[in-house]
Amino acid sequence: MSGAESSEKYVLTRKQSRAIDDISIREFHMSSLVLMENAGRGVADSLLKRGVTQVAIACGRGNNGGDGFVIARHLSLRGVPVRVLWFPPSDQLSPDSAENYRILQRCNVEFYSADDCDDETLSCQWLANADWTVDSLLGTGTTGNLRLPIRRALRLMRDHPSRKLAVDIPSGLDCDTGFAEPAVCPADVTCSLVALKRGMLVDQGPAICGEIEVVGIGIPPFVLQQVLKQP
After folding, report:
1. Which of 70, 102, 106, 187 is most exposed, with the fewest beta carbons within 10 Å of its own?
2. Which residue range forms the structural domain that includes residue 42?
């Protein structure tokens, strides 16, 4: 494992992960868009240092999907061909995700709609020639059964021979318990934002996450320490 902010030693629950975001925005006055930008750029850097020629990214509607839009932009700006699978309509994206979606539309990136494309189109076009596929569908806050459109995207990714990278945590892996939904797409690399998550280290977590890299997003260590001291 590698990372920044000396945060490899911290292990967070779902509640603590949410609290860190809240404190960083409310008390440290960090813009949520800045945090998303830092996260996406950090994951893009992780991909670039591993060697990439073409990347397919699946972006959900929440902030995890917003991270994916930022990843796509930074890869494209550095000359890596990127194709993005997204889930319309755009007015159902989280506010920060929607902002980065609008920015990415002006970049040289191909978009594929999960609503409009069949499996053959996604397999032969979205995933075509990708040496890495990126799971930026769901974040640490997800619990319960995965919805059909998400399961479909994960199945297509799982069946593709590319290497897999998960943003923050593989979609379908419980952040707290390490229980994995049957549809989960095991990752070769998981870029855990800010710090490790408890579910990565227990039950099915280690097998699903692969290599774990902690990616710093600019949150000071004292914020993590403050959250971890809370009951």
Report:
1. 106
2. 11-229
Could you tell me how many residues make up the chain?
Answer: 231
**What's the CA gap between 11 and 186, in Å, rounded?**
21
Classify residue 207: in a domain, yes or no: yes
pLDDT digits (tens, 9 = 90+) for 96-152: 999 999 999 999 899 999 999 999 999 999 999 999 999 999 989 887 789 999 999
Cα angle vertex 210, ends 10, 173, to 5°?
A: 75
Q: Give the amino acid at 209.
A: C
The CATH code of the domain that includes 138 is 3.40.50.10260
Nearest to 71, CA basis, from 98, 108, 104, 31: 104
Measure the CA dihedral 11/65/138/218, to 10°: 10
Residue 207: CB atoms within 10 A of its CB come to 11
C-alpha span between 215 and 35 (Å, rounded): 12
| Tokens matching residue 157 | 């990714």
* 5 domain-assigned: no
Helix or strand run (H / E) with residue 93: none
Helix or strand run (H / E) with residue 49: helix 32-50
pLDDT digits (tens, 9 = 90+) for 114-130: 999 999 999 999 999 99
Report how many domains make up the chain: 1
Q: Does residue 69 lie within any of the structural domains?
A: yes
In-domain check, residue 2: no
Residues 186-190 have a mean pLDDT of 98
